[in-house]
Amino acid sequence: MSKRDFLSLLDFNPEELGHIVGRAKEMRAMHERNELYQPLKGKTGALILQLSSTRTRVAFEAGFAQLGGQVIFLSPGDTQIGRGEPISDFARVLSEMVDIIMIRTPAQHDIEVLAEGASVPVINAMSSVLHPCQLLADIQTFEELRGPITGKTVAFLGDGYNMCHSYINAARQWDFKLRIACPDGHQPNSEIFASCANAERVIDPREAVAGADLVVTDVWSSMGHEGEADQRRATFGPYQVTEQLLDLAAKDVLFMHCLPAHRGEEVTETLLDDPRSAVWREAGNRLHSQKALIEFLLLNPKA
Ligand code: CP
Hints:
By secondary structure, this protein is of the alpha/beta class. It contains eleven helices and nine strands.
């Protein structure tokens, strides 16, 4: 069986995604029981982060250690890629030494080139186009608290960027309805949007949120857009998620944000600690869902 990669949620079928989320829930329960599960003894992963990270890095490093393996972290200054080594050569060399590669870099294309050159699995730890690892944690969190997400309604407010694209892919794979409210000029990629029959764009954030089971947003200036922050604050103002906006959603609505959040911008100062917010559990589930993903890629005979 050839190796599998996780560059997008579309790389796995719904059954495989369901299996990973199910294992993530079990991993969380095992962690809470302090149960040792170390099937990765002797395995090594390489983690390459060309953009800042807290959650993704800690989840991969702690997760690998908890599974009995080891991660080598490579920052942008540590590798020869920055000095012109072709990504395809880098992929072949790493494949000689490690069992799996996790990479965060702005260019989705570079991740694809890496995966093509590597003979070991490659995980997209976020690009400017997609953030599939985050979605595993988000779906896990929703399902732990509210049951299956299939058939539910999700509202995404704000920037039609990597998180929005990943929600579009998730709506396809888990078959939920997605309402997207983004300002003009910040709509999601039209091809990705068009690929999902369950996604609709609405103008008014209140229309997006009305009756929704899950409301999601992300920062208004993602990594690489910091220079546009002032302009973006003005453009995105009406898309701020407030407690009053959430009152329009379903009574048992959950709010999620991949974090880090900018309080006072895309969310009010107090929203993250509102009883409807699941952001802390969502962040914690990055650990369990990434462990389940690694287990699937390295140990599941069906992978
Ligand atoms: N949500 C997320 O990916 O967080 P980090 O950028 O801190 O990894």
